[in-house]
Specification:
single chain; 152 residues; alpha/beta; Rossmann fold; 5-stranded parallel sheet; 5 helices; 5 strands; 20% strand; globular
Length: 152
C-alpha cells in the first residue's frame, strides 16, 4: 500500500485511531492523509464544547462555522505533529461524513481507509446507523477499523 486515509473526528478516541493507522502506514511505507469532515455547527454544540472552541448559542451560525473550521484545522495539525511525520497531508472538508470519506479516498487514491468504531447506544445505531458502517457498506477499498469502545 502506498496511500492510506485516516478519517478522524473530535472524539477523544481519535488519538488511538490516528496512532494505529499511522503505525500500519509506517510499517508499509505508505503515505498518510488525515481527514476531518465538518458538519453543521449545531452538531458540535455540547459534544465538543469541552474543547473550549465556542459557545454555539453565543454567536451566529456563520461565525460558529469559522470557529469550527479553525479549530478543526488546528486539531488536524496537532494530530500530524503528534504522529511526528512532516510528510502527512491534512484535509478538512465539509458535507455528509460517509460520502466525503469515500470521495476523498478515491481522490487521494487511498488503498486503505482507517476509521474508529465508537460505542454508541443501540437505539442510535438502529435509527441512525454509524458512519463507519455506512462507509464499509459503500466501499470496495479495504478498511482498517480501530475498535474504540471503552472497556468497563
Amino acid at each position: 500500500m502506498k496511500q492510506i486515509l485516516i478519517a478522524l473526528d473530535y472524539n477523544p478516541t481519535a488519538r488511538k485511531v490516528a496512532e494505529s493507522g499511522f503505525e500500519m502506514a509506517k510499517a508499509m511505507g505508505a503515505h498518510v492523509t488525515l481527514l476531518h469532515v465538518l458538519v453543521a455547527p449545531e452538531m458540535y454544540a455540547g459534544v465538543y464544547g469541552d474543547m473550549g472552541v465556542w459557545q454555539i448559542n453565543a454567536i451566529d451560525q456563520v461565525e460558529a462555522f469559522k470557529n469550527i473550521e479553525t479549530a478543526s484545522q488546528s486539531f488536524l495539525e496537532k494530530a500530524k505533529k503528534h504522529l511526528g511525520a512532516k510528510s502527512i497531508d491534512t484535509l478538512l472538508k465539509e458535507g455528509d461524513i460517509a460520502q466525503i470519506i469515500l470521495q476523498t479516498a478515491t481522490e487521494t487514491k487511498s488503498e486503505c481507509i482507517v476509521m474508529g468504531s465508537h460505542s454508541s447506544k443501540w437505539l442510535e445505531n438502529i435509527l441512525l446507523g454509524s458512519v463507519t458502517e455506512d462507509v464499509l457498506r459503500k466501499t470496495d477499498i479495504p478498511m482498517f477499523i480501530v475498535p474504540t469502545k471503552k472497556m468497563d
